[in-house]
Design a protein that fits this description.
heterodimer, A: Ribosomal Protein S5, domain 2, 29% strand, B: alpha+beta, Rossmann fold, OB fold (Dihydrolipoamide Acetyltransferase, E2P), five-stranded antiparallel beta sheet, five-stranded mixed β-barrel, globular, binds zinc ion, nuclease (chain B), exosome (chain B)
Chain lengths: 245, 954
């Protein structure tokens, strides 16, 4: 009868969060020994795995090599069991290609590619479970993996989504909130400088509200940064202890 | 920020889909009691009182909060809304259940919660770490929710004890579910039924009246005979509808006969579109507007609609008598008259609302059960229980229906509100607003919060995409006393010799932004409603009478439509822009007319007005040549006594040249805008159309004219307009006006629609291929949408998803059409009421009148002096019936030896008939020509001005 109430009068969302709150984030770095860098992240029920190789020599045709900077190659895939409805996605479908392209744009803006001319950096991201905010989870996982690989970056890239319901901006949308069909925005931010690596918006939003939603997404991205920074420091601490042994 | 939360997952399985949802539990949700140390003021918004003093209850004399369960909230909302009930904790579990089960109650409970004085607090128990409960194996959702409510009640009582042990603050659980109550008491929660609690409120005995009386299922069989057959459960109805055994439709009770109703079948079926129901048992407790399932009876049982007028009167609880009356209806009739007949087998959706009406006190003294007679004759009488019958007598009251048991002749209900003395102006105004569903409550805080902060001034940001037109000599022309000025005009000569004409409309969409509470409320109201002495605004007064009103000598934001025209009023260029204007003068029609007419005046405003007037005349001529109709209908205005606000004189509205001057440019602006938005948004432009009436509608007009040897052609609007112009009689100058009035009655209703949902855009009355409303955004919501569309089209503002969603737009149109219709009815009802007041003070009056229609047993007359229409009947209850011969062809009515034709001049006596307090009416009786045996009737009823429609004959 009545549709889902996304935000109650008391200010709680369907899953009990307040408007600006993130879902629970858990992350680990260095999950695969074989790769140059790897990381696993859980943002609520959205789970993603990122693996990084490089920088290494260009594979395949040499013509792709860039004279002044490294080539960033991003590939995205999602597990068939990642959504409620099991669907076989052929490799390289439109959605995966698009996501790969977006990730590439994001990381070209963040990685100091000019330090490794004529070489290639591969970032592979797989979503194991999708419950909203897949792009953001991919970016965040990939950031940790790139850091794990020791590839120099300008800054962390932290991403988060935001939506707009009843005059209030909601941060970090879950699948239920995304499915409701309101406007949604995905933002990848370099938190230290406040520069935007990528901004994408689905559906229409009145100009009057754009600033509000953008600020909510940016604040959420900064919150993500605080958490990721803690994960990195923890990882480094553990690594130094094991080295010290 | 996440640290304070425990993490828990809830899995809902359904089919193959496995949905995993997160459910966060928090410990920062406050209990809502101020001064609670444990929660540390974690609650925002309305909260409970720390020391609730009232109501004084004999069951629990110590201070307490109430915690109702879902069913109490759903059924006893009238009690909860009473000012005596305060400090109520509404659980999220309960609120969500209410939301799923009844949208109107949900809205009401939200309104109550937003009222600071009520101290209602919504506790988000489902996300509180200590009150969340998981569904157990084998437990159904209802039981789980009941348990959740009890857990919350228990938690509250323990939590409040911690806060201060000495003042014994308690939470009382209110439930009507016996088992749930027992369980609660076992668990140590103080629990009462709603009835027990309300009866314990010794200081507020009147509250008992507002209790909904819900008969428990079991009782039904014991007391009294079963009258009605059982309603089938919804699942069976749906099955039946699918298989075609039953039909689904909207139940429409007859206004004239309480034993008859029709059901309009939903869907596109051509056959059996309308099903007749006759007799109490076949109506089977359905109430006007309900969605019902009907079963078609076999053809041998079909009946014809009766022409008898039957009103349910007296204290008639005897069902046998009803059956006798029903037999009366089934007089022998022609087989051709038989209609598909059916009976109600079940109710799909009740559409009950609170009803206005009056109490018919029981004949038995000391009786607490009384019958309530709704003002709307289509609603059955309702049995209520009240102790204050004597105070409620002679008052207009509101009553809500609770249910209709199978053994009861009438539905049961409860008293909701006393509106005041019948006949009092405030009471009657309230009644007519309620009965026409006109939203008229003061604007809520949430709505007002979106108003601009005062003092307001135009900022640089406002000037973005806006042209400064303050140098132009703009002025407005309106009726006297107009405070919501929508439009202003200017006209100046350009260097190339052409004329520049500008129509400037208040820029309301600048202030009302899409989607916020102010926008939603305006959209809901749809239109400003003008009553005889009251205006119910669509937008708050700050906007309607100040910031949006294009008053003179202040800077105002406008949306301008500017044309370049040559001196023969041909449009050379059209442009639209958002602007700032500064009107030089706010004139009345009379003032503007005076300026134009007086040769000595030659100032800028006057020259501008003269040019406009000249152009308007050319435009009007062109329009009429194209076939636009000019139809007159007498509009009545009341002159109010400045102190008592009683009407002292009636006057028909006078029309000046300047009226039509303003109108002409508004039409032009509307047409220009309609073209522009349709060009830009072919699928989702909001337009207005006026369908051509089917030829059969004109029959009465053609026949009437023919009786006066005049010919009216109706094949096109143009020929109609021309033949109306030619229809003059040198001996009867008023004839032309009468013909035009009749022609108005043949017309269809103009409606708003979304261009993507329709292909016929034509506006018949204005003879324009496309039309919309742009010029009155202060008082019509359609214009606000049109402004937004136009602003997007010219790049002055940005769009939003709903604006380009044609289904949403179609929904908006549907509501607007409904609101406009209701506003019109409310307005007529208001005029009718003031007409009554006028004749009440004036006593009995004799006036000249013209016959507009003849009916089988009556004539409908128009009194030009008052613009008043009424029916003169020739049959009386207790007198011998006169010989009536009705001729449909001419049409004429012969009474004894006198023949009446349409347009005959008669003389009637007018007076107020107060014999039925609830339905006071103006009564008319014939004085001239005199008919022997008819004389001057004394107790026959006449035009019922209480009815919302004065139905034109179709
Ligand atoms: Zn507390």
């Amino acid at each position: 009868m009545a549709g889902l109430e996304l935000l109650s009068d008391q200010g709680y969302r369907v899953d009990g969060r307040r408007a600006g709150e993130l879902r629970k984030i858990q992350a680990r770095m260095g999950v695969f020994a074989q790769a140059d860098g790897s990381a696993y992240i859980e943002q609520g029920n959205t789970k993603a795995l990122a693996v990084v190789y490089g920088p290494h020599e260009i594979r395949g045709s040499r013509a792709r090599a860039l004279p002044d900077r490294a080539l960033v190659n991003c590939q995205y895939s999602s597990a068939t069991f990642s959504t409620g409805e099991r669907k076989r996605r052929p490799h390289g479908d439109r959605k995966s290609c698009e996501m790969g392209l977006q990730l590439r744009q994001t990381f070209e803006a963040a990685i100091l590619t000019q330090l490794h001319p004529r070489s290639q950096i591969d970032i592979y991201v797989q979503v194991l479970q999708a419950d909203g905010g897949t792009y953001a989870a991919c970016v965040n996982a990939a950031t940790l993996a790139v850091l794990d690989a020791g590839i120099p970056m300008r800054d962390f890239v932290c991403a988060c989504s935001a939506g707009f319901v009843d005059g209030t901006a909601l941060a970090d949308l879950s699948h239920v909130e995304e499915a409701a069909g309101g406007p949604q925005l995905a933002l990848a931010l370099l938190p230290a400088s406040g520069q935007i690596a990528l901004l994408e918006m689905d559906s229409r939003l009145h100009e009057d509200h754009l600033d509000q939603v953008l600020e909510a997404a940016a604040q959420a991205a900064r919150d993500v940064h605080t958490l990721l920074d803690r994960v990195v420091r923890q990882h480094v601490r553990e690594a130094t202890i094991s080295l010290g042994d | 920020m996440l640290k304070s939360k425990t993490f828990l997952k809830k899995t809902r399985a359904g089919g193959v889909m496995k949905i995993v949802r997160e459910h966060y539990l928090r410990d920062d949700i406050g209990c809502g009691a101020p001064g609670c140390m444990a929660c540390g003021g974690a609650h925002e918004g309305p909260v409970l009182e720390s020391q609730p003093q009232d109501p004084a209850s004999s069951l629990c004399p110590w201070p307490h909060y109430l915690m109702p369960d879902t069913n109490v909230l759903l059924h006893q909302i009238d009690v909860l809304e009473d000012p005596a009930i305060r400090n109520v904790i509404v659980l999220q579990t309960v609120l969500q259940e209410v939301r799923n089960r009844s949208a109107p109650v949900y809205k009401r409970i939200r309104d109550v919660t937003n009222n600071q004085e009520k101290h209602f607090y919504t506790f988000t128990n489902e996300h509180h770490r200590e009150t969340y409960v998981e569904q157990k194996q084998g437990e159904n959702a209802n039981d789980r929710n009941d348990r959740a409510i009890r857990v919350a009640a228990k938690w509250y009582n323990e939590h409040l004890k911690k806060m201060s042990a000495e003042n014994q603050l308690q939470v009382i659980f209110i439930t009507n579910d016996r088992k749930n109550k027992e369980k609660a008491v076992e668990e140590g929660i103080p629990a009462f039924t709603c009835e027990e609690y309300v009866k314990s409120l010794t200081a507020n005995p009147e509250l008992i009246d507002r209790l909904a009386c819900l008969s428990e299922e079991g009782n039904e069989i014991e007391s009294g005979k079963i009258i009605f057959s059982e309603h089938l459960p919804l699942s069976k109805l749906q099955q039946g509808i699918k298989s075609g055994t039953y039909l689904q439709g909207t139940f429409r009770a007859s206004r004239e006969n309480y034993l008859e109703a029709t059901v309009w079948i939903h869907g596109d079926t051509e056959e059996n579109k309308e099903i007749l129901l006759q007799g109490l048992k076949h109506l089977n407790r359905a109430i006007h507007e309900d969605i019902v399932a009907v079963e078609l009876l076999s053809k041998s049982q079909w009946v014809a609609p009766s022409s008898v007028v039957l009103h349910d009167e007296g204290q008639n609880e005897d069902v046998e008598k009803e059956e006798e009356r029903e037999r009366m209806l089934k007089a022998a009739v022609n087989e051709k008259m038989l209609k598909p007949t059916g009976r109600v087998v079940g109710i799909i959706k009740r559409n009950w609302r609170p009803y206005c009406g009056m109490l018919s006190k029981s004949d038995i003294k000391e009786s607490r059960r009384h019958l309530f007679t709704p003002a709307d004759r289509r609603i059955p009488r309702i049995r209520i229980e009240t102790r204050q019958a004597s105070t409620l007598e002679g008052r207009r009251i509101i009553v809500a229906i609770d249910g209709w048991p199978r053994n009861s002749r009438y539905p049961n209900g409860h008293f909701v509100k006393n509106l005041g003395e019948v006949g009092e102006k405030e009471t009657e105004t309230e009644v007519l607003l309620l009965e026409h569903d006109v939203p008229h409550q003061p604007f809520s805080q949430a709505v007002l919060s979106f108003l601009p902060k005062m003092p307001w001034s135009i900022t640089e940001k406002d000037m973005k995409n806006r042209e400064d037109l303050r140098h132009l000599c703009v002025c407005s022309v309106d009726p006297p006393g107009c405070t919501d000025i929508d439009d202003a005009l200017h006209c100046r000569e350009l260097e190339n010799g052409n004329l520049e004409v500008g129509v400037h409309i208040a820029d309301v969409s600048h202030f009302i932004r899409p989607g916020n509470a102010l926008d939603q409320e305006s959209a809901r109201r749809g239109t400003t409603v003008y009553l005889c002495e009251k205006r119910i605004d669509m937008v708050p007064e700050l906007l309607s009478s100040n910031l949006c009103s294009l008053r003179c000598n202040v800077d105002r934001l406008a949306f301008s439509c500017i044309w370049e025209m040559n001196h023969s009023a041909e449009i050379l260029k059209t442009r639209f822009t958002k602007s700032v204007i500064n009107s030089r003068a706010s004139l009345t029609y009379a003032e503007a007319q005076m300026k134009i007419d007086s040769a000595t005046m030659n100032d800028a405003i006057t020259t501008s007005l003269r040019r406009l007037n000249k152009l308007a005349k050319i435009l009007k001529k062109g329009r009429i040549e194209k076939g636009a109709l000019t139809l007159s209908s007498p509009e009545v205005r009341f002159h109010m006594d400045s102190e008592t606000h009683d009407p002292i004189d009636l006057q028909t509205k006078e029309l000046r040249e300047t009226n039509s001057m303003v109108e002409e440019f508004m039409l032009l602006a509307n047409i220009s805008v309609a073209k522009k938005i349709h060009e830009e948004f072919s699928e989702h432009a909001l337009l207005r159309k006026h369908p051509a009436p089917p030829p059969s509608n004109y029959e009465i007009l053609v026949k009437a004219a023919k009786s006066k040897n005049l010919e009216i052609k109706t094949d096109t609007a143009k020929s109609l307009a021309e033949s109306l112009d030619r229809a003059e009689s040198p001996t009867f100058p008023y004839l032309n006006t009468l013909l035009r009035i009749l022609a108005t009655r043949c017309m269809m209703q103009a409606v708003y629609f979304c261009s993507g949902m329709d292909n016929d855009f034509h506006h018949y009355g204005l003879a324009s291929p496309i039309y919309t409303h742009f010029t009155s955004p202060i008082r019509r919501y359609a214009d606000i949408i049109v402004h937004r569309l136009l602003a997007v089209a010219i790049g002055a503002d940005c769009t939003y998803p709903d604006l380009t969603d044609k289904h949403k737009l179609a929904d908006i149109c549907k509501n607007l059409n409904f609101r406009h219709k209701m506003a019109q009815y409310a307005q007529r009802a208001s005029v009718a009421f003031h007409t009554q007041l006028f004749f009440k003070s004036k006593g009995i009056v004799s006036e000249e009148a013209y016959i507009l229609f003849v009916r089988k047993n009556a004539i409908v007359v128009l009194i030009p002096k008052y613009g008043l229409e009424g029916t003169v009947f020739f049959e009386e209850k207790d007198r011998p019936k006169p010989r009536l011969i009705y001729d449909d062809e001419v049409p004429s009515l012969k009474i004894e030896d006198t023949v009446f034709h349409i347009f005959d001049k008669v003389k009637v006596k007018i007076m107020l008939d107060s014999s039925n307090l609830q339905h006071q009416k103006i009564r008319m009786s014939l004085i001239e020509p005199q008919i022997p045996g008819i004389g001057i009737p004394t107790d026959i009823s006449n035009t019922d001005l209480d009815e919302p429609e004065r139905k034109p004959l179709r």
